[in-house]
Amino acid sequence: MKITIETIVNAPVEDVWRAWTTPDDIKQWNTASEDWRTTRASVDLRAGGSFSSRMEAKDGSMDGSQRRQHGF
Predict the structure, then answer these.
(1) Would you call 25 helix, strand, or coil by DSSP?
(2) Structural domain harbouring 66
(3) Which end of the chain, N or C, is less surrounded by CB atoms within 10 Å?
């Protein structure tokens, strides 16, 4: 199954690129809701690299089983 999501971001392309490729920035925006946080993120944009993030509930009820990893 292929899913395509599109949006328009009213920001300079450099800022958007940084937000999507810098682990510290990813931890700021990658949340499901206010009760969740991303505790870890890593990005390796080289061929064969990967994107990984770990999301946890702030109250500790979910401990990161929602980890996502994508290859490039």
Answers:
(1) helix
(2) 13-71
(3) N
